[in-house]
Amino acid sequence: MLAIEYAPELVEEAVFLAVRGRPRESGFRRQRDRAYEVRDLEAREAAFRKLHGEWFERLELGRPIVWALEEQPSIAAATQGCRVGPARARDEEGAELFVRPGAAGAGEPERRWVVVRLRPEALSAPERLLQFLRHEFFHVADMLDAHFGYQPHLPPAAAGPAHERLLRDRYRALWDAAIDGRLVRLGRLPASARHDRLRDFLRAFPVLGSATEQAFARFFDGAPCTHADLVTFATSPGNISASPAPRVPAPGPHQGARCPLCRFPTHAFEPEPACLPIDLVEIIRSDFPAWEPAHGLCRQCADLYRARSLAPSIALTGPAAR
Fold it and tell me: Could you give the number of structural domains in the chain?
């Protein structure tokens, strides 16, 4: 499981909001009052952090974050950890991938972290938060996917800043549609999400007119897209005839090849993927519908899914299933 660090101020405020006006509030207040009795300032602050952390765990406020990360094993395989901090407003909420290059000439590897920013009140609405994070973490998984080929900067627009903003809005609408289409097909997002994404698509591409729904279906219902697919269409939306080429996994792994799940090169593939239990295969397919045991997988991904198979199924215990 990916290590998750929570900002103390987010934990404190989230706990306050979660217990306010509820039966557990009196017990929390009594424990907090005892922490005030600690005379040493540093010890008192440590007592408050410990108290808030314990209540954060007791109230299971971080479970949607854990569930959403478990659904994207490639993130755990490719990053050093996840840091969750406060957002001041709804439009500041989201997940980002931060990369620190390795030191030149020192052989230090590149290091990556996922940084999540949330309002404290978002942690008190687990179903809504899980849906939001599923979408956000799919963005991060795409960024880490070598086949997607993410680039942090879009091509410069000859027409100037106004056109650059238009290109960003188009790219965002395309990527959001492609992600939510996959989530709907995986059963992790209700079918009603299609209407919301189509509305955003219409707003970003009024130039398409009567061809809008056909173009939208290409990204929402079609084969997985690459960063280049999205940039090409955002730049020239008039060409809707060609569909993105489907991603075809290699017929079988060889030493040094990329794992078809986490997309990282490896010399340690699972030795007998055809012998994996059928329930484990189905869990893998819930994340990668086109995957077959013959495609292989690295040992790290196999171990991650074995651990997940021993835990209660997200589909059965997650708030979205209730």
Answer: 3
